[in-house]
Amino acid sequence: MEVRGAPALAIADAVRAGKLRARDVIEQFLDRVARLDGALGCYLLVDGNGARKRADAIDAAVKGGRDPGPLAGVPLGIKDIFCTKGIETTCASKILRRFVPPYESTVTARLGAAGAVTLGKLNMDEFAMGSSTENSAVKPTRNPWSPAHVPGGSSGGSAAAVAASLCAGATGTDTGGSIRQPASLCGIVGMKPTYGRVSRYGVVAFASSLDHPGPFGRTVEDAAALLEVMAGVDPLDATSIPAPVGAYRQAARAGREGLKGVRLGLPAEYFQPGLDPEVEAAVRAAIDELAKAGATVVPVSLPHTKYAIATYYLICTAEASSNLARYDGVKYGHRAADPRSLEEMYTRTRGEGFGDEPKRRIMLGAYVLRAGYYEAYYGKALRARRKIADDFAAAFTTCDAIVTPTSPVPAFKFGERASDPLQMYLADILTVAPNLAGVPAISQPCGFTKAGLPIGLQTIGPALGEEICFRVAGAFESRTDWHKQTPPEAVS
Ligand code: GLN
Is 349 in contact with 400 (CB distance < 8 Å)? Predict the structure, then answer.
């Protein structure tokens, strides 16, 4: 079986049927990583021997007539923000260098129990702060479609690795767009479920009320299959939702039968000046295709959209400044050498360990939480967040799902936005509102620019409405070939 471009489920089905050995699959992927990742920079760590051992165990199960699970033999890349027991987890930060977690995240534990095989840990913006993976303290990740362009972020390593078939699926986290935006820029599928749908246990916290773990796949059904395994209540995360996990694969497949009776909302606020004309044309053509599949397109309004970026950057920095207080050189990772006092140990550890972007967020967050400013900034942001969530709730009384572009622009060049944090923050303008509202949203490929860069379509659903996202995305995918494109093979 040619693994380049192969969907994860094609691999799992062949392994479960005994037609393909998990060990052979893993060797092929490890060989691809060895040949191609030097040029792309997706992996921070490759666990070849661990992967071989797990693959052998899957093959032994198949041979012994036992079911190794729905993801049998599927090679996965794990964003380096998920704690993996015994395997270094750094969030691409110097401050967590050599941090080896003593426990496993719920997400990776569930994926492993379903037969998936972890190949290694993937690059990201430091602590998931960024939209291009340029904030990694380790190295940049390149967009497989064009090495001069960023893969998006913060889960840039995950999106680029799936796009380049350096793994068949991956995990990511999405706090303000970090699954959907890199999926869009790399031409693959990325899903941010409802807040609490997937446990955050063992996921290093950035902004706890906004962090959503989720899957990347080559196809809508792959993403659905991964989410089915990742999702569900977890006693170790009190914010996880005790609602039954939906039949996401079935929903994705149901989309192939068309979208009769489905009302798709088109929010004018997401088609404003600043939207790249090629992106707009591709997304409007995609919406026409969804209408041909039987959907009715209705205008909706999300009037508080204009406050989303400011609201997001107030809340996420406030939460980050509190979450990142724990990195002080005492318990985790880096500690400054030979400090003369405890205070110097703290300040030098943090000064040396954090990159510019985490430092910027910690300072902004400490500022907005300061006595005297708290109400004016943080309190106001919480009220705006409520209005944004109410916008979605109101829109979903007249439509079943909302369709928009995922990113206002295709992949940008290295350095193009990195020098201006505000420009980088604006890359999230179409993705942050669903995080603030906690509602699910999926991004899938819907075209290419003339220069050959992927364009993404975003479908947003109501809270706990992952199924409608998968159904709409499944419908679009079954009528188009964008997801079948593979990027050129880079040479290391
Ligand atoms: N780009 C956004 C930020 O920098 C979102 C990051 C994310 O979703 N983790 O905060």
Answer: no
Catalytic residues: 79, 154, 178
CB half-sphere exposure, 159, CA atoms < 13 A: 40
Considering the domain architecture, whether residues 78 and 219 belong to the same structural domain is answered as yes
Supply angle C-alpha 221, 226, 228, rounded to 5: 90
- Asked if 92 contacts 126 with a C-beta cutoff of 8 angstroms, the reply is yes
> To the nearest whole percent, how much of the chain has pLDDT over 70?
99
What is the CB < 6 Å shell around ligand 1? 128-131, 154, 173-178, 206, 316, 428
What pLDDT is recorded for position 490? 64
pLDDT at 159: 98
Q: What is the DSSP letter of 318?
A: H
Q: How far apart are CA 221 and CA 224, in angstroms?
A: 5
Hey, which of 91, 129, 155 would you mutate to test ligand 1's pocket, going by the most ligand atoms within 8 Å of its Cβ? 129
Do residue 343 and residue 290 come from a single domain?
A: no
* 344 and 262 inside one domain: no
Same domain, 309 and 353: yes
Same domain, 402 and 422: yes
CA within 13 Å, CB half, 126: 22
Q: Are residues 210 and 313 in the same domain?
A: no
Distance 354 CA to ligand 1 centre (A): 17
- Would residue 162 count as lying in a domain? yes
pLDDT digits (tens, 9 = 90+) for 112-168: 999 999 999 999 999 999 999 999 999 999 999 999 999 999 999 999 999 999 999
Question: Tell me: the pLDDT tens digits for 282-334?
Answer: 999 999 999 999 999 999 999 999 999 999 999 999 999 999 999 999 988 89
Q: 116 in helix, strand or coil?
A: coil
**Residue to substitute in 209, 316, 420, 422 for testing ligand 1 pocket (most ligand atoms within 8 angstroms of CB):** 316
Atom of ligand 1 nearest to the CA of 131: 1
